[in-house]
Design a protein that fits this description.
two-stranded antiparallel ribbon; ABC transporter involved in vitamin B12 uptake, BtuC; 75% helix; single chain
Length: 330
């Protein structure tokens, strides 16, 4: 890449690099763990049948986990990219509109009551859907979509949910607090139950978003400009909101609340010079999935046999990376 040439002229090269990064992250997650398996052992277990210990470890433990981490990272990055264009704010993330807060209140309340995993997931889903309905109901009135009211409602709702979450943590027995904290900071270890719905959601939301990437490019110029150019702004904004919310809920149901991915990944792709949503969206999904897969691999191997919350690793890895990109951006 020559000096003075923007990355917009090399989207195919970036796509190839991000694909290699994503597959490298997936294979690294399969390679490292509490049991040492060689490179050839992982390849043999993947592409051959058998009942050996490495085959069982790869197919029953590591492969579902790395696929879950990749799907969760891709969902969060996609939701972040959509919300940043909806709110016209590069600091927007999937949790800014209170979806995470509502899900956290539902999940932690179920844990406080001693409910099982299925009921906890249902309570989390109910909390997230309630938050989505409240924010949408208060922001969409008489055929008018007010983005400022949308953002303010989400921030206020998030603050209220944070207060309720703190109250639940205070009232919870000490034996339950660690599990609650892991949910709040992200945990992929239990994610195999929701693996298939998460991947289906990721594919559907990503494909639909790509189909409307041209309209998203026009919307990024501003609402008035988009209306002038014939874009149906109101239905597009509603679709962005519900698409981002659906992706966020799927990620929450899969691995709890994992921060920073939805904020830093789309922003990092923009700092590389990509502004066209035809490339921004798939690059964000690949980078987000590969990044979270690597972070989860570190979370389960860095302090083995003890596992760290993956949300801690995403912050520790993502913040320096974003600061480096910002320092290099003129």
């Amino acid at each position: 890449m020559t000096a003075g040439v923007t990355a917009d002229k090399y989207p195919v090269l970036l796509l190839i690099l991000f694909l290699l990064f994503a597959f490298g992250g997936l294979f690294t997650g399969l390679l490292f763990g509490s049991v040492d398996i060689s490179f050839s052992g992982v390849a043999h277990a993947l592409f051959s049948s058998g009942d050996t210990i490495p085959h069982q470890i790869i197919w029953q433990l590591r492969l579902p986990r790395v696929l879950a981490a990749f799907a969760c990272g891709g969902l969060l990055a996609l939701a972040g990219a959509l919300l940043q264009i909806l709110l016209r704010n590069p600091l927007a993330d999937p949790y800014i509109l209170g979806v995470s807060g509502g899900a956290a209140v539902g999940a932690l309340l179920a844990m406080l009551l001693g409910w099982g995993l299925i009921l906890t997931n249902l309570a989390s889903l109910a909390g997230a859907l309630t938050a989505i309905a409240i924010v949408f109901g208060l922001s969409f009135r008489a055929g008018d979509w007010n983005l400022y009211r949308l953002l303010l409602t989400g921030v206020v709702l998030s603050a209220g949910c944070t207060a309720l979450t703190t109250l639940i943590l205070t009232l919870a027995p000490a034996s339950d607090v660690k599990g609650m904290l892991f949910w709040l900071m992200g945990d992929v270890s239990r994610a195999d139950e929701g693996l298939l719905p998460a991947w289906i959601t990721l594919i559907i939301v990503a494909v639909i978003s790509m189909l409307f990437s041209g309209s998203l490019n026009v919307l990024s110029l501003g609402q008035m400009k988009a209306k002038t150019l014939g874009v149906a702004v109101l239905p597009l904004q509603a679709g962005i909101y519900f698409g981002a919310s659906l992706a966020t809920v799927a990620a929450l149901m899969l691995a709890g609340a994992i921060g920073f991915v939805g904020l830093i990944v789309p922003h990092a792709v923009r700092l590389l010079g990509i502004s066209d949503f035809r490339w921004l969206l798939p690059l964000s999904v690949l980078l987000g999935g590969g990044f979270l897969t690597l972070a989860d691999t570190l979370a389960r191997t860095l302090w083995a046999p003890q596992q760290l919350p993956v949300g801690v690793l995403t912050a520790l890895l993502g913040v320096p990376m974003l600061l480096l990109l910002l320092s290099r951006k003129r």
